[in-house]
C-alpha cells in the first residue's frame, strides 16, 4: 500500500528508483568501517538473544552482519525494491516492508534496534513519531543504536540537502544534518535513557565525507 504521507512517499520512490545502484555502492561498506562493526557487535551482545530490528535496512547488509554475529534479526524498510534486494542477497534473514513511523512489531517485542542513517530523511514531526514507535517496540531494558550525519564541507547541523539527482536518476528527497543534542532531546522526551554518544570523522574513500554521530539509547527497565 502506498504511503499517505507525501514526504514519506517521496523517500520511498527515491529508494525504489536508485535501489540497484545504491545496493551496489554500499553492500560491502562495513568492511571498511571498524567502529561501526564494533558498535554492532555491542548491540548484538546487549540484545542477549532477543530480536534485533534493523530499521531502514536498505539492501540488508547491516542486518546480515548482525545475523552473522548470532543475533535474531528482522530488517525493515519502506522501499519494496530495497527489501527485494535484501531478500535476494541475504535469504537467511527476515525482511519486511514497513514504515518506521508505523512499525508492525508488537509493543515491547524487540531487544534492540539499529537505525543506521535511516533518520536522516525525517523532518522533526516524522522523527518524533519514529522515536515514539521505537520506544513502544523496545522491551524494558531494550537498546537502540542511531547513526546520523552532523556536518560536511557543504552542510552544517540543521541544514537540509535537497537531492534532485541521485545515482544518475531524478529523485525528490531531503537529507537532514542533525546536531546530536537535537536527537538526544528527542530520545529523552520519549523516555529513553542515553547510554553513549560517539562522533567520528569519515573513513577516507569509504563513505560520504561527513562528521557523524552514533547514539546508544535504552528503554528504562521500569
Automatic annotation (TrEMBL):
SUPFAM superfamilies, per the entry: S-adenosyl-L-methionine-dependent methyltransferases
Pfam families in UniProt: Methyltransf_25 (PF13649)
Gene Ontology terms describing biological process: methylation
CDD domains: AdoMet_MTases (cd02440)
Domain Methyltransferase: 52-142
Top-level taxonomic group: Bacteria
UniProt keyword terms in alphabetical order: Methyltransferase, Transferase
Keyword Methyltransferase: yes
Gene Ontology MF terms in the entry: methyltransferase activity
InterPro entries per UniProt: Methyltransf_25 (IPR041698), SAM-dependent_MTases_sf (IPR029063)
Name the UniProt record assigns to this protein: Methyltransferase family protein
Amino acid at each position: 500500500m502506498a504511503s499517505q504521507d507525501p514526504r514519506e512517499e517521496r523517500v520511498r520512490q527515491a529508494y525504489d528508483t536508485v535501489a540497484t545502484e545504491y545496493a551496489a555502492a554500499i553492500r560491502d561498506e562495513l568492511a571498511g568501517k571498524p567502529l561501526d562493526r564494533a558498535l554492532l557487535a555491542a548491540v548484538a551482545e546487549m540484545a542477549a538473544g532477543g530480536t534485533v530490528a534493523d530499521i531502514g535496512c536498505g539492501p540488508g547488509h547491516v542486518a546480515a552482519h548482525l545475523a552473522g554475529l548470532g543475533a535474531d534479526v528482522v530488517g525493515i524498510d519502506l522501499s519494496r525494491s530495497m527489501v527485494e534486494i535484501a531478500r535476494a542477497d541475504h535469504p537467511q534473514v527476515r525482511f519486511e516492508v514497513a514504515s518506521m513511523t508505523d512499525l508492525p512489531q508488537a509493543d515491547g517485542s524487540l531487544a534492540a534496534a539499529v537505525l543506521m542513517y535511516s533518520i536522516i530523511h525525517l523532518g522533526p514531526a516524522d522523527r518524533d513519531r519514529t522515536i515514539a514507535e521505537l520506544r513502544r517496540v523496545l522491551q524494558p531494558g531494550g537498546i537502540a543504536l542511531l547513526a546520523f550525519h552532523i556536518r560536511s564541507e557543504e552542510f552544517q547541523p540543521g541544514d537540509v540537502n535537497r537531492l534532485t539527482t541521485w545515482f544518475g536518476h531524478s529523485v525528490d528527497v531531503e537529507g537532514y544534518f542533525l546536531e546530536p543534542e537535537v536527537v538526544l532531546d528527542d530520545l529523552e522526551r520519549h523516555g529513553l535513557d542515553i547510554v553513549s554518544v560517539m562522533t567520528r570523522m569519515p573513513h577516507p574513500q569509504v563513505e560520504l565525507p561527513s562528521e557523524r554521530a552514533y547514539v546508544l539509547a535504552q528503554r528504562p527497565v521500569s
